[in-house]
Structure formats: structure tokens, C-alpha cells
Amino acid sequence: MAVKIKEGFKVVGKSVQKVDGFSLACGKAKFVDDFDLPGCLYCKILTSPHAHARIKSIDATEALKIPGVITVMTHEDVPRIAHTTAGQGYPEPSPYDTFILDKKVRFVGDRVCAVAAETKESAIEALKRIKVEYEVLEAILDPRESMKEGAPVIHDEEEARMIIPVPYDKEKNLASHADFTVGDMEKGFEEADVVFEREYESHYAQHCPMEPHICATYLDENNRLVIMTSTQVPFHVRRIVAERLQLPIKRVRVIKPRIGGGFGAKQEVLLEDICSALTLKTGRPVKYEMTRKEEFMSSRTRHPQILKMKVGAKKDGKLTAISMKVLMNTGAYGSHALTVACNTGSKVLPLYNKALNVEFWADSVYTNLPVGGAYRGYGATQGYFAMECILDEISRELDMDPVELRKINHIKTGESSPVFAALGEGKPGVEQKVGSCGLGACIERGMEEFDWAKREDRKKEVSPGKKRGSGMCILMQGSSIPEIDMGAASMKMNEDGSFNLNVGATDLGTGSDTVLAQVAAEVLEIPVDDIIVYSSDTDMTPFDVGAYASSTTYLSGYAVKKCAQKIKRQILKVAGEMLEKDSYDLYLEDKKVHDFDGNSVTYKEIGTRALYETDQHQIGAIASHISHKSPPPFAAHFAEVEVDTDTGKTEVLRYVCAIDCGTAIHPRLAEGQCEGALLNGISFALTEEYVFNKKGRMMNADFGSYKIFSTGDLPEMKVILVPTYEVTGPFGAKSVSEININGPMPAIGNAIFDAVGIRLKHAPFTPEKVLMGILEQKEKEAVPV
Amino acid sequence: MGIEITINGEKKVWDTKPSETLLDALRNHGYKSVKRGCDEGHCGACTVLVDGKAIKSCVMLAGQAHKRNIVTIEGIGTIDEPHPLQKAFVHTGGVQCGYCVPGMILSAKALLDENPVPTEEEIKTALDGNLCRCTGYVKQVEAVGLASKMMRGEN
Ligand code: FES
Ligand code: FES
Fold first, then answer.
1. Which of ligand 2's atoms lies nearest the C-alpha of B96?
2. Inter-chain contact A24–B35, Cβ cutoff 8 Å?
3. Measuring CA to CA, which residue among B63, B27, B21 is closest to residue B40?
């Protein structure tokens, strides 16, 4: 047997043309709203003006008189099945506390009833004419009040429950709880030379995908229900809608066309049920698109958290104990309430595995405020804010470079943390050793690029009224949920030597169709444009849990690799027959199979023979993958800010991010993921926030007053990809999409301290808060103690 | 209400309702590349060129487009023959989900038509009304610079 040694990758690691790039750039790509459905009705939802109320009656008489209004649907017209809107695997670790429509509303923006009409205008008009009588109930607008004696019970319905054995106490408004301790906390704090205790608060935010949630439903020629939807989780949509509407799964087909961004917001089954119910009722296609205002008020948000931290360290910087206690506000429903809170611990605490004594405690509580959900970072964003800010304080107390403190304590290749096993997603976690950690190199490269050593000198360069400062942080995340997530792919070969690759993995704008095609192309020794990628359609593509938990490249990518390897074996078999050689004595190169005597057959010849000529058969395969690990990507972030001491405005001057995502399969797309996450994180740290009135209504539900960054705000950002090789990932890859949103809050917070000496523990760092901090500090300085 | 407009070089006569926005009129007539991100003038997804200027079509009435010259992304290039801006956006990685991209490219086109060699600051100013949540803008700003070079035959 001869062997051909392959040198380097041919397609992996190259920034090939994005498979849907020109279709998108030329305006041809089709999003849900771009499909014309003849006879389509428009759905609009009447939402609650009250934070907490019982619906006494709904009178739709006047609305139904409007020409074009076909139906008004209330809780009396739909099955009453408790469920969660979280698009998670079954059994979902989120409480079943939601109904398609209910007799009770639990936040301003909650659904009251639905209208279907011939035109959008008549649907909107109908909403105005529906008369609803409410019995307004006392509301909880502060998560600290939720578990107090005598607080109103938000989920007083008997059906609300958890379907897995985890703590849930609706009488106390407790949507989930998790805790663990490793080591001996008392001993850990006794050993410490310094102990810091701090409380941090992270805030509400919305994902703001440019395409809002949208869904269209219709009955096909066989009376099956087709749901075309902007989703990250087509297979979960199929299962969950079938369950809610009491349909057999086989009657439901879910199609995901192009998606205009998700960031977690679309890991939620929000519109599909109501649209489907209206289609089933009227027999007609129905479309429902959220307005931007609904997107803010009625869809999903980042869960706000209050984090109590206590950290002990020795004089030499070694951490001895970490305690993290989280009170998470899940809003009116418990979507992702348990798992986001668990991730706050499980994605943060293992990073500092030198601390042997660690405790974690998390309560997620109901309030009558907007509902939390999955959001890029998924709890780690909140956790890193607290962790990386308190470590900055400790390093200053110890008179130590904050970088040094991190270096001494962070996890390294070959090491583990007991936290991995202690904390999972609704069940214990999975023990793992870190197989690849480039964090040391990330820190070095980042420091160099940022010129960390000269940060003090740069402070002198400022104009009067401005102060400059630098801050840093380090991060990790995961790649997929181990032993829970599954991805699958199928492939077939065509007679011209091209291949169809069908994946359940959901490209929502991330470029995963391209990345997955690269993986297959690498195995088969072909260019990416010989692969026709299709994602996702529950009738056509194999199962995949969907695009979340940083799983697509790592997990679905591995399924694609396995699938392509199966195809390769079949190609070699046919080629062996053609060349009269054992398949072990053949190799693939340039769309051909070669032997070592200089003979070859082309893929076209192989494909044609297989389909038309001899021993005809379809060269095709399907493969699935689950992971027993969730290898963390790592990153080091450095931020330089300038604070205007008269106005309190903080400007980010430079932001450097060095990231280890294993092999970057498509470096440009990987950088793009980082830049997108960073800017979202920076905007979240500085400007994005929900402003509520006294009744729990969001007052700034539009892009005019909820400020997300635009090109005018763009700081200088530099992303450095630091390669490592993760053996359990496809061609060494780990995840890249989520991790970097976690850095800006702590890095900027620490930089603001470095500039003006104030510690902001309640994000976002708005000019008002900065100015207030500066004034308080001046007052303190003026009064000698 | 009948309006006469020129879209991507073709003359059209459309029946529109008085309250119909240009965005709705365009989408209803099949110009699906014009996207809706907010419907209130804040995001730029619905940007089209009206007499060469980048305009948010969700805050313009269709009636106001009477006798005007409209260009959508379909009018500047095709998959077979893309405009340099379209090439540059794909090449640099300025396209992720692509929902913002038609509007973003049209704003960039209005800039380059007027100012073929913009500075980075000028590019950032020109794109400031177009929101993108995916890319962090870095590669989009780069794309406009690259397109400017390509259009001058430098690349
Ligand atoms: S849709 Fe027109 S600006 Fe947003
Ligand atoms: S590429 Fe998705 S919004 Fe810009």
C-alpha cells in the first residue's frame, strides 16, 4: 500500500468566496418576506398595555366589521398547551409556562389576541377596534422583589412546570435554580491575603437582527402545514409547533430560507404557532412580521443579572477562592432561564482553574418585564463583566499588572476544571480536559499589537478635559453542548462530479453554508464551487439542533467531514474498479482519483459510471455527530478609551482582540464574526439599554432612541486570529461566533477606571453615570476624612 | 393614484394608494431587494437611489417618486456582471446575512458617484445611516475603499 502525504490544507484556512455572497450582494437572495404567497393574509397581534393583568373579556365585534378582516383569534380558539418558546432540544430545560394565547398577560407587550386580514392596513385598524377588559394585577418590576413574602405570583396557572427534575417554584416566582461548591470556601478565603466583595449589574438589551422575526405559513397540495420562517432552529420549530397545535410531526414542514441575522433571538419559537393556527383556521397562507417596536417589546432580550462576587487572592496573585452568586431576571416567562444562568458559571469559572475553592449559586426569577432569551454570549457576557472587573480591582490592590494576574491563574492545555463536570445544562456537566489553549499566545500577541507596555505614556497625549485609559480582560466560551447537541449532513454525487451537501445546520448569515462546504471540499479535494449547499428544510435535510451554543462549525462541521469521508470511500471503490486497483492504492487530487502508476479517472467519469454505466448506484451518504467535549475558544481583549471629564462621554479609541478559535476554516468570515460580536459588545457596554416607565413599559423601542452603533461610532478594531489545533474539531476548528461579545463590558469598564479612577458596576457606561462617578469622586476628595 | 417612475432605467406607470410608501410600492411590484428593517427611517435597509441620492424609501411616499429616477440594487449589477461595489463587498467579507447590504451598497454608490476617492472618514459618514448588526462595519468600510480603487482601475 502506498500513501500520499498531504501537505497543509487546500480549501480549509482559505477565505474562499462566500457561497451566497453574490446572491445577497445583488439582491437576489430570498428572505421570508420575499416569497409572494397568493391569497396571503396578514397577521397582527394585539399586545398588552399592562404589566400584569387578567383578561376578563375580549370583544371583537367592531373589528370583524372592518372590510377585509377575516378572523380574530383569542385564547378560547387555540389549544391550551403549556410550553416553552425556547428552541432547545427535547426535553427542554426551560419551564413550560407559556400558552399560544392566555387569559392572563404578564408583561407590557405580551400577546392578547391575533387578527388575520386581507391587508396589513385592515389588520392594524382591527387592533384598534378590539375591546379588551382587564383586571389589572399588582406587578413585579424589580427582580429583588420577586421572591419576597407576599409578592404577586406571576405564574399562578396549574399547568406551569419543569419537565426535567430541576428546582422550580412558581409560588415563589422562581423559574430556575442551580448551585454547586467545589473545595472549601471558608478555607479558601482564609488562605487569601486580600478578599474583595463586589456587586455588579448587567442590563436588558435586544439582539436587533436587521431582519425582524418573520414567518409565513400555508397548506400545501397535500394539506400539510408548511412553515417558512426566519429561525435558527428549524427542527425544534417543527417539533414544538406540532406539539402546541396537537398535529403529528409528519404533517409539518419547516423551511428556513436566507435569514437576516439572529444572534439568539431566533432560537425562539415565537410566531410560528400563531401563524400556523391562523392558517389551519382559515385554510389560507398567513404572514406575520414583527415591527421593530414589537421586536424590542415582545420578542426576546438579554437576561439582566445582579452578580455578587467574592474573590480571594494571595499576595503573589494566586487566586484562592471565587464565589459567584447570580440573581437573574428572566422576565415574564422562563425561556432559557436555567441554562443562561448556568452558563454564567460554567463558561466563566473554569477559566480560573487555579482557584481550588469555587462556589456558584443562581436563581432566575420571574418579573413582569420583557422576556429573556438566548443572546450571543448566553450568560457568559454577564459573568465576564463581573469576573474581569473584580480581578482588575484585585490586581491593582496587589500592585500587579492585570495581565500578570490572569497569566498566573488561567487554565492551560491539558488541564481541567471541576466546574466542567459540576455544571451542565439541566443536568450535570461533562468532564473535559482542555485539548487546545492558545490563550498565552493571545495575551502576548494582543499586548504587542496594543502596545500595552506604553499605555501610561499614551495618557499624556490627550487634550484638556479628556483623560485616557486602558483596560483588558480574558475570555473563554464553549463549542456546542456536549452529549446533548447533534448535527447531521447528507451528500450525494452528481454525474458531472459535483456534489449536493444538505445540512440541517442553519446559516443565519454567519456563513456556515460556506464553512461547511469548505470542510467537504477539503476531504474530497475539490473547489468549493463544486458543492451545492442547501440549508435547511425539515423535509429535505437531515436533523440538526440548529445554530446555537457555538456549535455549527465544530459539531455540524464534523458531521460534514464524516459524511464526506464516507463519500470518498465510495468514490475510491468505483475508481478502483475502473483502474483495477485496490482502493488503498489510490488517492484523490484535483477532482480525479489517481493510482501511483500515473493513471487517473475524473470525478465526472466516476459519477457518470455510477449513475449510468456499470453497477449503477447513487454515490451518497449521511452522517451524524455528537461531541463529548465542548472545547473552549479563548480570547484576550485590550481597550483604550478617552473620557470627556466635562460631559462624561466615553469614546473607545482602539480595541484589540486576539482569539484562539483553533483552525479558522474561513479566516475572513471568522474575523467578521469577531468584529460583529465586538461592536455589538461595545455598543451594549456604552449605549444600549431599555428605559422603562413606572408601569414596566419600555419607552425607547426604536432605533432612534435605542442606540446601536453605526459607522460613525466605529472605533479602530483589530482582530488577531491565533491558530491552535483542536483534535476533536473538523480540521482543528473550534467555535468563534459568541465569545467576543463578552469582552467589551469589562475591558471598557476597566479602561474607564484607568482613565478617571471610577468603578462603574452597573452597565451601560452612559455619560450620566460616568459624570456622576466623577462628581462623587471630586466630592470625596474635597472632604478630608 | 397613477405615478410615472423610472426604475433601473425602465419607465413604469404604477397605481398607488395615497398613503403607500415607496418601500411598499417597490416591494409590491417585485423589487424585493429593498428591505424593511424598521419602517421608520432609522435603519437604512430600505435605501434606494432617487435621482442619484440615497433615500430611505420607507419614509418617502410613492407619490413623491412621481417623475423621479429610482435605482435599486438590481439596477447596478447582476450575479453575472456585478458592480465593483458588489464584488468588493463579497470579496472583503462585507456580506454576512446580507440584509443590510443592498441599502449599504446603494449609500456607498451615491458617495462614490459624487466623490470617487473618499477618505475613510468620508466613507464612514456616508454609511452612517445604514445599520448592520452582523459585520461590525470594518469590512464594509474596507469594501467601499476597495471598490473605489477597482473603479479607478487600480485593482
Ligand atoms: S426600513 Fe426604512 S430606514 Fe429602516
Ligand atoms: S450583514 Fe447582516 S445586517 Fe449587515
1. 1
2. no
3. B21
B79 neighbourhood in chain A, CB within 8 Å: 22-23, 26, 28
Ligand 2: which atom is nearest the Cα of residue A509? 2
pLDDT in tens, A553-590: 999 999 999 999 999 999 999 999 999 999 999 999 99
Decide which of 3.40.50.300, 3.20.20.100, 1.10.150.120, 1.10.10.10 is the CATH code for B84-151.
1.10.150.120
The ipTM is 0.98
Q: Is domain B2-75 classified as CATH 2.60.40.10?
A: no
Label residue B83 exposed, middle or buried (CB < 10 Å: 0-12, 13-18, 19+): buried
Question: Cβ–Cβ of A702/B135 closer than 8 Å?
Answer: no
- All three cell numbers of A365, joined, read 426569577
The pLDDT value given to residue A550: 84
Specify the fold of A485-625: Aldehyde Oxidoreductase; domain 4 (3.30.365)
CA trace torsion A564, A568, A570, A576 (10° rounding): 180
- Residue A395: all three cell numbers together: 490586581
CATH number of A305-481+629-782: 3.30.365.10
Cα Dmax for chain B: 48
Q: Which amino acid is at A556?
A: S
Name the pLDDT band for A717 (thresholds 50, 70, 90).
very high
pLDDT computed for residue B154 by the predictor: 77
Specify the fold of A32-137+213-289: Aldehyde Oxidoreductase; domain 3 (3.90.1170)
Task: Look up residue A701 and give its three cell numbers.
Answer: 423601542
pLDDT tens digits for range A594-614:
999 999 999 999 999 999 999
Residue A785 has pLDDT above 60, yes or no: no
| Domain spans of chain B, in order of start | 2-75, 84-151
Residue A168 has pLDDT above 90, yes or no: yes
C-alpha A554/C-alpha A632 separation (Å) is 11
B72 touches chain A (CB under 8 A): yes
